[in-house]
Each structure stands twice: as C-alpha cells, then as structure tokens.
Amino acid sequence: MNVVVATLPVAALLVVVTGAMWLVSGHASDQRFVRERVALRASSSAAFIGSYLQDAAERQWSWASGRFQGQTVPPEDIEAAATSFGYQTAVVLEPDGRVAASWPPGSAAVGSVLDPMPTYLAAARRGGVGVSDVAASTSQGVRVISVAVAFDGPGGRRVFSGGFSTGATPLIAYARSALPSEGDVYLADSKGEVITSTRPARAGTMLASLDPAVARHLGRLTETVDGGRHVTIAASTVPGTRWKLVLVSPDHVLLAKTGVEWLSWALLAGLAVVLGATAELVRRLSASRIALDRANEQLDETSRRDPMTGLFNRRQLLEDLTEAGHRHARDGVSFALAVCDVDYFKAVNDRHGHQAGDAVLTQVGQILAAGARDGDRVYRYGGEEFVVLLHAPGVDGAYQAAERLRSDVEASSAGVTISVGVATVTDNSDSDWLLGAADAALYNAKRQGRNQVSRFAELILG
Ligand code: GH3
Ligand code: MG
Questions:
Q1: Where does 68-165 sit in CATH, by number?
Q2: Looking at the predicted structure, is the pLDDT value of residue 110 above 70?
Q3: Which percentage of the chain shows pLDDT scores above 70?
Q4: Which residues have CB under 6 Å of ligand 1?
C-alpha cells in the first residue's frame, strides 16, 4: 500500500513531464511546420504571379503576331493595343532596335534607338520574355511595370512591350492570397522597390527603408523579431523575373490557428488532476487503513492486558506458556512458574473497602513487575493471584527469584504479604500440569503459614 502511495505521485509527475516534453517538442515541430508552410506559400504565390505574367506575355505575342505585320506600325494600331490591354505605355521595336511605334504619342520618338536599351527590352530582343522593374511612366506619372515579347514581323524579329500601372494589376490579389490572414506581403522588383503590397501605402517605396529586417533576410526562410513579435519571413523569386515575393507572417497568428496545442495542454492538465486526485484518495485510504491497523493492534494489546494493573492477563500467559513449552522441547531452554497469592486479602477488602483492595492489588502488581528479571513476565492470573513466568532460571533460580519477590512485597508499604508456589518445567510436563504443580506448591505455602515460598519439587520429594 505504501509503495502504491509513494509511486502514484511520481507516476503523475512522470506523466506530466513526459506530456509536457511531448507537447513542447510537438510545439517545436508545429513551428517548423508553420515556417515551412510560409515558405511554401511564398514560392507557390510567386509561381502564380510568374504564370500570370507569362499569360500576359502570350496574349501580347498573339496580338502583335496578328496585327503588327505592316512595314510600319501606325499610331492608331498601337493605341488600339494599349486600349485593349489597358496599358499606360506601349512600344514596338524594329529588328534593329529602332522605335516603330510608341504610346502615348511622343513618349518615344519613332525611328530613334532607346539609349540605354532597358534590360527587359534587350531580353525580349534576344527572343525571350522581358519583365521590367518599376518605372515612372513618362506621361501619366504613375508607376508601371512592363512586359515585353518578341514576335516575327515582316522584316525580322520585332518586340512589343506594354507597361501597366502597378495599381491596376491583379498582382496584389495574387500576393494577398499567399497569406491566410494577418501578415504582410510585398512584391518587390530587382532593386527592392515595392511593386505592390498588402499595405498599399508602401507601394513605390524601397523595402530596405520600410523594414530593414525584411530586406536583410530576403532570399531565405528566417525568423526574427519585428516590433517585439516573432515573425517568419519567407522570400521567393517570381519565375521569369528578378522580382521577389516576400511574406512576413507573425508566428502567433500562424500557431494560434492550430488551436490543438491548447486542447492538448487542457487534456494534460486534466490527466494530472485526475492522477493527483487518485493519489490523494489512495493516500487517504491508506492512512485510514493504517489507523485501522493501529486500532486493531491496540485492541489486540488491550485483550492481552489486565486493565486494572496494566499487567499481562491469563490469555497472554497461556500463549506464552505454550511458546515456552515449544522452546523447551526444541532447545532445552528451561522455565518456571511462580504463582503468587495475596494473604488474607479478603480481610483487606473487609477492613478498607473494595477500592482500597484494588489499590493494594495494583501496588503488588507493580512490585512484582519491578522485581522481575528482564525476560521474565508478570501476569495477573485472576482476583488476587499473580503469576511470574521465569525464563531459564537455572538451578534454584526460580526459588530465589520467588523469594526475592515475596520479600519485596513484605518490605513494601502495601501492608500485605504473598505466598508463592514454584514449579519448574520437566521433560514431560505440559502447561496445564505446570500450573497445577505451582498451584499445589502455593496451597502448601498457605498451609504452612503463608508469606513464604514453596517448591513443587520439594513437595514430591517430601
Ligand atoms: P488466603 O490467604 O487464603 O489467600 O486468604 P484470602 O482472603 O486472600 O483468600 P480468599 O480466597 O478467601 O479471598 C480472596 C478475596 O480477594 C476475595 C475477593 O473478594 C477478593 N478479590 C478478588 N479479586 C479482587 C479484586 O480485583 N479487587 C478486590 N478489591 N478484591 C478482590
Ligand atoms: Mg488470597
């Protein structure tokens, strides 16, 4: 029972610690998972934007391939294209790089060569798709990005480029879909200028000036502290461009989404409470069990004692006699009985009353108990009769002990004397025989005048 009581709280503690470790490691892997998910969202949204630009390039190619096939490109043709695509600016280049047409009128002189040739146009002239960084449109004062494609004209490879306002593109919608809720999304060009953002006011500014932490961590998945909050930053290059899509996501939002961890903690706390309550219940049961055991022991002890004198009683004597008999038979250890009876005790009661008689009996009991050797036991056999069980008394030892006890009583203030009958165990004596023999010796002591010790052995021998 005690083992269970001691083990349960330890088991409860173990469960809590293991559970907490499991949760913490689970929490850590949750965080890893969340970070990787942010990175995945960044790259998939970047791919989405890339394919949007690719679509735009294909639509331009198909328009240009069909409509810009004349020797020259008339101003109304490029205006029609610009209107159809919703461009702020548009330009068609001849195979040798000269401007074939431009929109709005006069934005680039027809027949001139752009110097320097913008990188994205140069890329298109080599046969690919060119996507520009952000630039101010010459006429309308808005920020534009341009997509340029090569197509086959009558005299060779021409280039058609259209520039559209960053504010008028669905790019920000794609970018916003990268994050489920709170957090910031930036689409920045190769120079770090924000093309579009979930914070509209930040479009047109430089990432580095807005958020140095973000700018520093561009290009890799990282975690940092932004304004006192842990954030996960993930950056991904938009395919076919040198643009970057950057997600800045506060960890608390992402982690709170699971919600599972609180449930786990709650379950763990519940389990700990149940285990603790069980431990307490078992402890109480055990405590009451211990109290019961103690009460039983006390009851048992009481049943072996005489309440008036506190000495062992007849029941204990009979048990001890059996035990001593066994030991004698087994190891040859001798023992003897001295039966003591108060002389003329009836007269004490008659003269001083029953209560005074009780006090005398109690005093005689104390004298006998004090005078008995260690290992010897004193019993109240009944009435005014006491028995001393003497262990290994040796030759004449029992008689001498009995005589000493007798003289102790005589010399005391009890005002009474005792007569004692002594009998020592023999090889074929049982406890009944021994009691009978001591009683016979006692009777002899009484008959011979009281206040004396008589031995059963002498009785027989005469
Ligand atoms: P003897 O010397 O022959 O032993 O004479 P006695 O008076 O002691 O013997 P007897 O057997 O005639 O009387 C014993 C008395 O002891 C009778 C009984 O009332 C009294 N007695 C027995 N038990 C108790 C007890 O517990 N308390 C008191 N006060 N008296 C007791
Ligand atoms: Mg008596």
A1: 3.30.450.20
A2: yes
A3: 85
A4: 341-346, 349, 354, 357-358, 361, 383-384, 446, 450
